[in-house]
User: Fold these one by one.
Assistant:
Number 1:
Amino acid sequence: MTRNVPEKPSLDDLEAKWDARWESDGTFRFDRTKTRDEIFSIDTPPPTVSGSLHMGSVFGYVQTDSHARYRRMSGKEVFYPMGWDDNGLPTERRVQNYYGVRCDPTLRYDPDFIPPETPPDPPVSVSRRNFIALCHGLTAEDEVVFENLWRTMGLSVDWKQSYATIDEHSQRTSQKAFLRNLSRDEAYSQDAPVLWDVDFKTAVAQAELEDRERPGAYHRIAFRGRDGSEVLIETTRPELVCCCVGLVAHPDDERYQAIFGSTVTSPLFEVELPVMAHHLADPEKGSGIAMICTWGDTTDVIWWRELDLPTRAVIQQNGRFQTEVPEWIVGKEGKAAYREISGLYPNQAQRKMAELLAESGDLRGEPKPITHPVKFYEKGDRPLEIVSSRQWYIRNGGRDESLRQTLLEQGNHLDWVPDFMGVRYKHWVEGLNGDWLISRQRFFGVAIPLWYPLDAEGLPDYSAPITPDESELPIDPTSATPGGYQESQRGQAGGFVGDPDIMDTWATASLTPQIAGHWEDDPDLFDRVFPMDIRPQGPEIIRTWLFSTLLRSYYEHDQLPWDHATINGWILDPDRKKMSKSIGNVVTPLPLIEEYGAEAVRYWACNGRPGADTAVDYGVMKIGRRLAVKILNASRFALSFGDDVAPETINQPLDRSMLSGLAGVVEQATVAFEKYDYAKALEVAESSFWGWTDDYLELVKARAYGKGPEAQSAHASLQLALSVYLRLFAPILPFVTEEVWSWWKEGSVHRAVWPSPFEFEGLTGDPNVMSRTSEVLSAVRRAKSDAKTSMRTEVASLTVSGDSATIAAVERARPDLLEAARATDVAFVEGEFGVETILAG
RNA sequence: GGGCGUUUAGCUCAGCUGGCUAGAGCACUGCCCUUACAAGGCAGGGGUCGGGGGUUCAAGUCCCUCAACGCCCACCA
């Protein structure tokens, strides 16, 4: 092939050039004729497209791409799809803010609806169908932005394999898997207290909770015993006195032995309440005796359940206290007190109750301010309330010890990279305290594919849901009619009703291997890619995505969905602080790509050790850019000596010595990549490469410019080494290596074979020749540097001391050394290693 | 309260199964326009390896303990 080496090589615009070429050449197209053992499949994390782009998005994906590129070069056919997680609340929220709309399911579809130019305040209410249409439209735009970013970053994804968690295929897969869970009794519905976000008006799952420290205050409140004695409790939620169902203290607590089994009455409301014992009551907290309300926190739920207490729920799904006075409050004053708080939000009700209790004398002393952790939905802004509602669950071991053990074992069989990440999984599974709540009272998501028959009174029978046939999926039960019914029977007594809820986004995302692999839609493909080789992902979603995927795979296939889980580290801002929108320290990738180039950003991402928290570091990006420039320049030099020369001509000791070292580097880089350690692979290649340019290129330069067999040996060595270095760097720096490769090779470097020590067979020699000669050259440079003179200064006398092996090694590179050092001769002396340089002039 | 991770030069980090005077890059200093590269190259200064204790011929590397930081989890009255 004719050489096409540019005079002034540059990194500019390589991203766009090669992205377009790879696309048109189908370089990363998956060849599905390969068999499972020839395939390396990746369960790519589908990014949440409604989120903004930030460096965390880039970091893990680039690391994964390095694995994909390495495996492809080492002979595997790589199944590397890309998904978009567009389903769910983040998208709804983004659409609400972007267009200034709210979904009101009671409204009718307006086919002519056009969203306002600028988001109005207050927002416009739109029908469910209009709202969903807006969600689809905006996510489609967001997906284009993401795809462009990934292409610029050089992800070697097969873009023909993309999916979105809201697309029809994903919906079908998700509904099918759910129906299978239902048929095997792995899913069930239940009317029970759930953690509830009052703004989003939906239930949320344990995995989506987070604690936030909030100010509160202990209110000391008096309950009265039958004999007129007082029982003082302390609570941070005095507004819940009205829904108190009992008091509880520890069974061993001396102070309360006398009143266990008796009753007290609540202040203001005058409700008679039992005093009970339970081991979860902590004698150290407050007065040691607590009021149980339905429901103030999750402990209340446990007490309520285990002590078999009545349900007196007052907080509604809209977050407000119910307006009518509850029937358990019978006294006139009690009713009057309740009317003071009816319809209020808890924080308002709390202030009111504190006033009322103070007036009545039942609040003792001033409330004591404290800071305490409060449960929030991770995407929510107000504390969660606990309300009773019917929800769907998938059994996850949270209430079944043997299933929990099985899932823990599954986790043990997974290869975690790095391995300490497995501990996080273990802790999560061990800490599960309930099944996985998958239903959400939202709109943009995969529908729960069920209807319920209505009895003669028009009440749904939840115990006998009507299921669709799998061939009908996906369905929307709020518009589709179940078999055996007429649409006119919807909502009528003796008819049916569709489940209005959707599934949590994780209920679909937990099926990414099945979605990407086209489980059952294309069983031939699925068998070729499943179980997948790796699941790359962030540490924060081990409890959600990783766990739920493992669970669904266990249920559906009775095996792990992947062999390895590669967990990337956390991304920190340049000051090593966690990046978050609220702090305003989010670093976005586009300006950095603009300034340093995608390759430099990739270099940064692959510099972080697997699993290590990594700060955005512009210095590292600069180094990456410099490395890429160096590759261009060194390549230009190495390829500036005429045609390709066969490796058999390599006969010079220095050349063979250099290749020995390189063979070792190849070995190390390969081992590192096999262990998913892209950072180590990069490091060994990089340090070797700088040595190659600094020393080998300098030593060989004069000879290479000459003629004859010695020159030929140099040319062949330069070419072979360059070819190896380009391939070693290709997984990390795909653009610059491809660019150089294109100057003198056919095809893509990314489809070239990964270098192996085998390539150096018969071409290696004593590694000391290179290393020792480099040391001598270094010493000569030092002498010139100390003398503050140019490196071109002639050396009048050069004496190398060393043991016989060292002398022999340097001797063998004598002509190259003399040229590089600008010396006319070198003398050797047996003894301690040392170099004496006397400069001319 | 429990767990995991981190703590090595001013900064960002390597240092694998313990072994010669602890490494890299950035920053800093000096020199050099040498025909691959001056948005470069060459060379140099700089560290009691978080504190304390222990094992060992030998510890940044193993054990114990303490501390700081980060993250995860926990029933938060």
Number 2:
Amino acid sequence: LDWSRELATCEPEYYRWNQWFFLRMLKAGIAYLKTGAVNWDPVDQTVLANEQVIDGRGWRTGAPVEKREIPMYYLRITAYAQELLDALSQMPGWPERVRTMQANWIGRSEGVNIGFPYTLAGEPKVMRVFTTRADTLMGVTFCAVAPEHPLALHAARDNAPLRDFLGQCRRGAATEADLATQEKRGMPTGLSVQHPVTGADVPVWVGNYVLMAYGEGAVMGVPAHDERDFEFATRYRLPIAPVIDVQGRPYDATKWQPWYEDHGRCVNSGSYDGLESAEAIERIASDLGGRGLAEKQTTWRLRDWGISRQRYWGCPIPIIHCDECGAVPVPEDQLPVVLPRDLVPDGSGNPLGRHAAFLACQCPACGKPARRETDTMDTFVDSSWYFLRFASSGNAESMVDGRAAYWMPVDQYIGGIEHAILHLLYSRFWVRAMDDLKIVNLREPFANLFTQGMVLNEVFFRKPATGRVEYFNPADVDLKLDAAGARIGAVLRADGQPVESGGVVTMSKSRNNGVDPQALVEQYGADTARLFTMFAAPPEQTLEWSDEGVQGAFRFMKRLWKAVHAHVSAGPAPALDPAALDAAQRDLRRQAHQTLAKVTDDIGRRRTFNTAIASVMELLNALARFTDGSEAGRAVTQEALEIAVMCLSPIVPHATHSLWGALGHERAIIDERWRTPDPRALEQALIEIVVQVNGKLRSRISVPAGADETQMRTAALADAHVQKFTAGLGIRKVIVVPGKLVNVVAA
RNA sequence: GCCCGAGUGGCGGAAUUGGUAGACGCAGUGGACUCAAAAUCCACCGCCCUUAAAAGCGUGUCGGUUCGACUCCGACCUCGGGCACCA
């Protein structure tokens, strides 16, 4: 460990480079200022993240959250969408799961941008929509625009009911999950557009299910082949026109069927009749393309990253607002803009806005009095490049230096799966932006990624007839078991009365089901706590917490300790002569080296610490049975104990440090080289192979290690059990897997 | 709704490339030691029939491929996670 590289992202020495690089991005157009819709808590006067909006209300104030348009700085991550997506397929060191999640999040979607012409105040105009199903164009019976769409705003100018409706949409459910389940509602704008093929009038509605931020903020409504359009059309009695035939199945417009969205063959589609969906999409795109009313288009789910936060604690955005010059970047030589430490957040709004000394400044452009930006950056900015700073620590002159080229990319990155999208996607983008601005030469920050699973725990509660649900920590609950050890109930230890179980879920304060590993550390020591945790399950897996098995880990540590000390109490072991061992000694030595090989692979490649521990447990069990006190026996024991201790040293470092010394080593085990198994120790004269008859295990036989197929086959057919099970049958085939098994196929 | 992942004894889990299902541990049962208990040690510990057995059954369900399937394929069920009106 090199503590000289330690850093804290809240120190000006670190976050000044956030500001510096932000200004670089601003200059390059990667950062930009835009007014966009956010969740706004009208009581706290702050923006809320989606996660902080519960049932449409602010998590602290309980006030209904509004959608508000406020100016924010954005980073143009969407400009990198294609390369961020493409690179995922060349990242074998990342888990498939994370790559899939990122690909879904980026959400590339190929379709056609289609124009619907209309006339407004005598001016010819075109309303554009994006669709992946241009083949259903002939089934359009309406169009719907988002409440924020210019056409909706225009129509609302002299339409009071529509204006009210747009207001309701703005105040409506705020979380995306709520939006998804919310009833589809809409209102006609009174405007209509022309169908680009038939020229027919198509009414334009405002729909609360249309997202301004995706595509064109407007959709063509094809109720026959889109579930949302179907729901909307049914509610407002709009016509439903089926235009796709899916394998001749009959269409019933009174009832939605999921297969209505399947691809098929065009019908009721004029000159497109008979075309397959894919062909129809191409034809429609090229036919309308000739008139400038269609264009193939790729759309992304990914949005630009809004980094402004109306929060005190964060890296100040280095901008000065001048009445004359607008938003002016803080000149580089005035960086960093330091966050004042002499104010106390009072829980409402951003206290920076009330800090006179922080606010007051001069416009760098014109020199007149101006006001400092009070928004701070999203803290994900800090975590997007800290690994580069570790590799360039102490450099006051530049953000990163040549040392980063040596250390990057990070060989092995470890984090919880909850970072699969946010942090890991932001970092990938940020590093590319740094590369493009010639600050570093790096396209991907993390060569190998390991994601631990989450630890879950059971929830216990009581629900009184009146009043609030009360949650109890699992540590305070006793399980009631029957004679066979099966669970029959749970009671609160304090009063012995039953509690209900709410299932096993992620740990949270609100459900009082967290655990503090400190209790285990105090009772058993840090090594046992570590051993137990790592033995419980492979680290990638979600784990249901239980400390039931911790006794076993503690017992194992005691057994290992006693085995080493019993061995060394008889004095130093003699040197090992591998050539002069009897069969039992050779067997133990082979097992020791097999264990070393397995643990090396389990820890180094597979990262399955649980199976590594299990194999050392097996070795210790073998050592317990091995009671050979001869010179050679003690030499083999010494080596086996050394291997056991070394194999466990990454997992239980304190105990193995002590045991390594007890085994007679001067050097600390942490400074020792990892051993490699002796190939000769792994050799075996005779091996046991499995013999099957018709795929069922019928016998085990011993053959020379190098036995070829013929020898194995002969030995297997000569076996008494095989003869018993094949008696009276003809032998049709014999399958031989060298070194493993023989399968006799008889009938 | 869509996309991932998982389903194996009473429990956590193992089986790495299609080749011995249940390693290792917990819990449990029996025994040794002890005045007794704890600790420790030994043995047993998937189901089923049995005096017994290398009999039969068995990896969520149903079907398929294969000499051979926990592993591959198809359909379904359940649970967990991610995304969630993305046109």
